[in-house]
Amino acid sequence: MLAAKGGDKLVALTAYHALSASLADPHCDILLVGDSLGNVLYGFESTLPVTLDMMIAHGRAVVGASDYALVVIDMPFESYEQSKEQAFASAARVMRETGCGAVKLEGGSHFAETIAFLTARGIPVMAHIGLTPQSIHTLGSFRAQGRDEAAALSRSNTPGPIEMDAEAVAAAGAFAVVIEAVVEPLARHISAKVAIPTIGIGASPACDGQILVLEDMLGMTERTARFVERFADVRSTMNAGIAAFSSAVRNGSFPKNGNLYGVKA
Ligand code: KIV
Ligand code: NA
């Protein structure tokens, strides 16, 4: 399925709908239908209001528009935390109703049992550790994780909580793990130690792959985290195009004859 650890870097982007999926698919190993769509598409303050039905609707659009990449769909808040049975019922719906290849859920050691339960029942799981946005209210902020744990690396061989999360999800059968906003030396250390591919976002170039939110990476969103690199400035392009349409309508230069039926162009 995915390249082995130490092979080519895994390229992953989010996709929320058919248009972005069809553009990103030829370039990516993984397309993630991230619950970040709550922020990016719906303007929610957090990802907590995102529902399973929303993820399924967007997931179906992305699966339909991609041929190459593995489509992974985020399990939204309140769809998997209560019990492993609840997680299976939700994940099975996602798999059956979208045709995606895997699901992702936020959580490390505490969700190892759930991950093992799903993988034993035919559902490939990608884990997500470090900064987990569904837990923003208990984490308290979007600050990078693992500063103390990274500082302790040189002093002790005892793994800290984030490293233990990575080991736990790998042992539970997750096929890959997203490491989000974890200080670089710790993300690098975890990537070297854990047996499954690590996908970094605000983590380390030593991760086995990298993921960004497509709209952030294209420069469409207004504010972004430090870990986002803008590889294009689509926001200005869109602004210019919308402004040009607006003035063309107002000054009567659009539509032209070539845009009309029953008149010579
Ligand atoms: O929802 C999302 O976009 C994600 C990625 C940033 C990893 O979970
Ligand atoms: Na997410």
Automatic annotation (TrEMBL):
Pathway: Cofactor biosynthesis; (R)-pantothenate biosynthesis; (R)-pantoate from 3-methyl-2-oxobutanoate: step 1/2. CDD domains: KPHMT-like (cd06557). It comes from the Bacteria. Gene3D superfamilies: Phosphoenolpyruvate-binding domains (3.20.20.60). Keywords: Cytoplasm, Magnesium, Metal-binding, Pantothenate biosynthesis, Transferase. GO terms for molecular function: 3-methyl-2-oxobutanoate hydroxymethyltransferase activity; magnesium ion binding. Its cofactor is Mg(2+). The active site is at E180. Binds 1 Mg(2+) ion per subunit. It is found in: Cytoplasm. GO terms for cellular component: cytoplasm. Its main location: cytoplasm. SUPFAM superfamilies: Phosphoenolpyruvate/pyruvate domain. It catalyses: (6R)-5,10-methylene-5,6,7,8-tetrahydrofolate + 3-methyl-2-oxobutanoate + H2O = 2-dehydropantoate + (6S)-5,6,7,8-tetrahydrofolate. 3-methyl-2-oxobutanoate binds at D35, S36, D74, K104. The keyword Cytoplasm applies. InterPro entries: Pantoate_hydroxy_MeTrfase (IPR003700), Pyrv/PenolPyrv_kinase-like_dom (IPR015813), Pyrv_kinase-like_dom_sf (IPR040442). It is an enzyme of class 2 (transferase). Catalyzes the reversible reaction in which hydroxymethyl group from 5,10-methylenetetrahydrofolate is transferred onto alpha-ketoisovalerate to form ketopantoate. Belongs to the PanB family. HAMAP family: PanB. This is 3-methyl-2-oxobutanoate hydroxymethyltransferase. The gene is panB3.
